[in-house]
Protein backbone atom coordinates (compact mmCIF):
# COMPACT_ATOMS: atom_id res chain seq x y z
CA UNK A 1 0.00 0.00 0.00
CA UNK A 2 1.41 3.36 -0.99
CA UNK A 3 1.66 6.11 1.59
CA UNK A 4 1.94 9.82 1.09
CA UNK A 5 5.24 11.56 1.26
CA UNK A 6 5.27 13.51 4.56
CA UNK A 7 7.21 16.35 2.91
CA UNK A 8 4.53 16.83 0.24
CA UNK A 9 2.23 19.73 0.97
CA UNK A 10 -1.33 18.59 1.36
CA UNK A 11 -4.08 20.42 -0.44
CA UNK A 12 -7.43 20.86 1.19
CA UNK A 13 -10.22 18.90 -0.47
CA UNK A 14 -12.18 20.66 -3.18
CA UNK A 15 -9.37 22.99 -4.29
CA UNK A 16 -8.47 21.01 -7.38
CA UNK A 17 -9.93 22.40 -10.58
CA UNK A 18 -13.07 20.50 -11.62
CA UNK A 19 -12.98 18.35 -14.74
CA UNK A 20 -15.48 20.61 -16.47
CA UNK A 21 -15.56 24.20 -15.43
CA UNK A 22 -18.86 25.94 -14.91
CA UNK A 23 -18.20 28.05 -18.01
CA UNK A 24 -17.94 24.98 -20.22
CA UNK A 25 -21.06 23.43 -18.73
CA UNK A 26 -23.04 26.61 -19.23
CA UNK A 27 -21.83 26.88 -22.82
CA UNK A 28 -22.90 23.29 -23.49
CA UNK A 29 -26.32 24.00 -21.98
CA UNK A 30 -26.74 27.04 -24.19
CA UNK A 31 -25.72 25.08 -27.29
CA UNK A 32 -28.23 22.35 -26.42
CA UNK A 33 -31.00 24.92 -25.95
CA UNK A 34 -30.15 26.59 -29.25
CA UNK A 35 -30.12 23.23 -31.02
CA UNK A 36 -33.55 22.35 -29.63
CA UNK A 37 -34.84 25.76 -30.76
CA UNK A 38 -33.41 25.21 -34.25
CA UNK A 39 -35.01 21.76 -34.49
CA UNK A 40 -38.34 23.29 -33.48
CA UNK A 41 -38.04 26.05 -36.07
CA UNK A 42 -37.14 23.58 -38.80
CA UNK A 43 -40.07 21.35 -37.85
CA UNK A 44 -42.41 24.34 -37.86
CA UNK A 45 -41.15 25.32 -41.30
CA UNK A 46 -41.86 21.81 -42.53
CA UNK A 47 -45.38 21.96 -41.08
CA UNK A 48 -46.01 25.25 -42.88
CA UNK A 49 -44.81 23.70 -46.14
CA UNK A 50 -47.13 20.72 -45.63
CA UNK A 51 -49.99 23.18 -45.10
CA UNK A 52 -49.16 24.92 -48.36
CA UNK A 53 -49.06 21.56 -50.14
CA UNK A 54 -52.45 20.70 -48.66
CA UNK A 55 -53.89 23.87 -50.18
CA UNK A 56 -52.22 23.04 -53.50
CA UNK A 57 -53.78 19.57 -53.54
CA UNK A 58 -57.21 20.82 -52.40
CA UNK A 59 -60.26 21.05 -54.64
CA UNK A 60 -60.32 24.87 -54.78
CA UNK A 61 -56.64 25.51 -55.32
CA UNK A 62 -57.20 28.12 -58.03
CA UNK A 63 -59.19 30.51 -55.83
CA UNK A 64 -57.38 33.75 -54.99
CA UNK A 65 -57.77 33.14 -51.26
CA UNK A 66 -56.15 29.69 -51.57
CA UNK A 67 -53.25 31.16 -53.54
CA UNK A 68 -52.81 33.85 -50.89
CA UNK A 69 -52.71 31.24 -48.13
CA UNK A 70 -50.23 29.11 -50.10
CA UNK A 71 -47.96 32.10 -50.62
CA UNK A 72 -48.16 33.07 -46.94
CA UNK A 73 -47.42 29.52 -45.82
CA UNK A 74 -44.42 29.23 -48.16
CA UNK A 75 -43.02 32.51 -46.83
CA UNK A 76 -43.51 31.39 -43.22
CA UNK A 77 -41.94 28.03 -44.06
CA UNK A 78 -38.91 29.67 -45.63
CA UNK A 79 -38.44 32.08 -42.72
CA UNK A 80 -38.65 29.33 -40.10
CA UNK A 81 -36.35 26.97 -41.97
CA UNK A 82 -33.90 29.84 -42.48
CA UNK A 83 -33.89 30.65 -38.77
CA UNK A 84 -33.30 27.00 -37.97
CA UNK A 85 -30.45 26.66 -40.46
CA UNK A 86 -28.84 29.86 -39.22
CA UNK A 87 -28.95 28.63 -35.64
CA UNK A 88 -27.56 25.22 -36.62
CA UNK A 89 -24.67 26.88 -38.43
CA UNK A 90 -23.90 29.11 -35.46
CA UNK A 91 -24.06 26.27 -32.94
CA UNK A 92 -21.95 23.91 -35.02
CA UNK A 93 -19.55 26.69 -36.07
CA UNK A 94 -19.41 25.23 -39.54
CA UNK A 95 -20.62 26.38 -42.92
CA UNK A 96 -21.67 29.76 -41.56
CA UNK A 97 -22.05 31.27 -45.00
CA UNK A 98 -24.18 28.45 -46.46
CA UNK A 99 -27.36 28.91 -44.40
CA UNK A 100 -28.61 31.81 -46.53
CA UNK A 101 -28.20 30.07 -49.93
CA UNK A 102 -29.77 26.92 -48.44
CA UNK A 103 -32.74 28.97 -47.22
CA UNK A 104 -33.17 30.63 -50.61
CA UNK A 105 -32.99 27.21 -52.27
CA UNK A 106 -35.66 25.91 -49.86
CA UNK A 107 -37.97 28.78 -50.79
CA UNK A 108 -37.40 28.37 -54.52
CA UNK A 109 -37.95 24.63 -54.45
CA UNK A 110 -41.11 25.00 -52.36
CA UNK A 111 -42.45 27.64 -54.73
CA UNK A 112 -41.62 25.50 -57.77
CA UNK A 113 -43.34 22.49 -56.25
CA UNK A 114 -46.46 24.50 -55.51
CA UNK A 115 -46.52 25.93 -59.04
CA UNK A 116 -46.36 22.41 -60.45
CA UNK A 117 -49.16 21.19 -58.22
CA UNK A 118 -51.44 24.16 -58.86
CA UNK A 119 -50.92 24.01 -62.65
CA UNK A 120 -52.06 20.42 -63.00
First CA to last CA: what distance? Answer: 84 Å
Overall 3D shape: rod-shaped
Compute the average pLDDT. Answer: 87
Number of domains: 1
Specify the number of helices: 3
Radius of gyration: 26 Å
Query: In this structure, how is the largest beta sheet organized?
Result: none
State the helicity in percent bands. over 70%
Number of strands: 0
* Low-confidence blocks of residues: none
Strand proportion: under 5%
Provide the structure class: mainly alpha
Spell out the helices and strands N to C.
HHH
How are the SSEs placed, and which strands pair?
Elements: H1 22-57, H2 64-92, H3 99-119
Helix pairs in contact: 1-2, 1-3, 2-3
Question: Your description of this structure?
Answer:
- By secondary structure, the chain is mainly α.
- It has one domain (24-119).
- Helices cover 72% and strands 0% of the residues.
- It is built from three helices and no strands.
- The protein has helices at residues 22-57, 64-92, 99-119.
- Helix 1 packs parallel to helix 3 and helix 2 (64-92) runs antiparallel to helix 3 (99-119).
- The model has no long low-confidence stretch (mean pLDDT 87).
